[in-house]
Amino acid sequence: MIGDRRNLLLVAIGIVALVVAISLLVASSPRPTEGGFIFRTKQSNYIIGDTVEFYFTNARSDQVTLGNPAPWSIWRQTVDQWVLVYFPLAPQILWPVRPGETLNWTWIAENRTEQPTRIPVEAGEYRIHLFVGIDAEGIGMDLLAYFTLRERAP
């Protein structure tokens, strides 16, 4: 009888642990925005000099269009406004994104002499701006992904 209660208790603990694990997994999974898109950085914090990784997923049931293969820009928060830090040069060709398709990009968070940034890359709050076209008239949606840059520890 004691063994039966013990087994029942172990099963109950196992079920609770499974429910908690599934809840944490679901809570940490990226959710689509109102428009049915997922646009996120892989991490929320980076060190200056790191490669910032970010991605866009079309979680809608229809195809959408990007204005080019790299339609994003990097902005840094200053005291009173967001200022442009970097934007990639890319051919201006329409780039279709099928339902369920994910596109990945990277940006090296450093100042470059061959391609100077608009303002210096330094520690602070940053956002990546992406415009997604939803229809042929150019109606679309601005998506933002945020991250923080920190100085490398001495």
Which labels suit this protein?
154 residues, alpha+beta, Immunoglobulin-like, three-stranded antiparallel sheet, 1 helix, flat
> What overall form do the CA principal axes indicate?
flat
Major β-sheet annotation: 5 strands, mixed
Assembly state of the chains shown: single chain
Strand order of the largest sheet: 2-10-9-5-6
Percent of residues in helices comes to 10-25%
Q: Estimate nothing, just give the exact number of structural domains.
A: 2
CATH architecture of the largest domain: Sandwich
Radius of gyration: 21 Å
CATH superfamily of the largest domain: Immunoglobulins
Average of the residue pLDDT scores: 80
Offer a quick outline of the entry.
The chain has one helix spanning 2-28, and strands at residues 37-41, 45-47, 51-58, 64-66, 72-77, 82-86, 95-97, 102-108, 124-133, 140-150. The chain has 154 residues and is α+β, with helices and mostly antiparallel strands. It has 2 domains: 1-30; 37-150, Sandwich (Immunoglobulin-like), CATH 2.60.40.
